[in-house]
Write a structure and sequence with these properties.
This protein is mainly alpha-helical and 88 residues long. It has 3 helices and no strands. The chain has one domain. The two termini are 43 Å apart.
């Protein structure tokens, strides 16, 4: 389900990007927007998208750590510590 949600989000983002690029091109052709402004706008949108992606990744990591903690599951660090203790 998470995988499907991820791919749906990517598809939606790609679709929105295409529509925005089409509209910017139309505005350029009509002379209502110059090429540099269109490029700057797209760069701004891409930067905001990357920032949002980073924010969401951090939220997911935090949520997963919380779930792991609540379930009492061993982490990679826990297993490594146990491994070192067994070697001693």
């Amino acid at each position: 389900m998470l995988k499907e949600l991820f791919y749906s989000g990517l598809g939606a983002a790609a679709s929105v990007r295409e529509k925005v690029e089409e509209e910017l091109k139309k505005l350029e052709e009509k002379g209502k927007l110059n090429k540099d402004d269109a490029k700057n706008f797209m760069a701004s949108i891409e930067q905001k998208g990357k920032e949002e992606e980073d924010r969401i990744k951090e939220q997911i990591k935090s949520s997963l750590k919380e779930v792991i903690s609540e379930l009492g599951l061993a982490t990679k660090e826990d297993l490594e510590k146990l491994k070192q203790e067994l070697k001693a």
